[in-house]
User: What shape does this take?
Amino acid sequence: MGIAGTLSSDQLEFFNSQGYLVIESFASPEDIDSIRKRMDKLLDDFDYTTVSSRWLSM
Assistant: This one.
């Protein structure tokens, strides 16, 4: 998975005002599946008892 090209000024403006950007065909379905599986593993393995955060105590 690699990144090629640059963002247009419209894309940058949208990102700066909205905080996100949708990039069609950024990654293949296989890459997305791999990323999701890795994210699931990281979340499953994360020990919430070892961190201090006001967000986790809500």
User: Anything to note?
Assistant: The radius of gyration is 17 Å. Residues 37 and 58 are 27 Å apart (CA to CA). The longest helix spans residues 29-45.
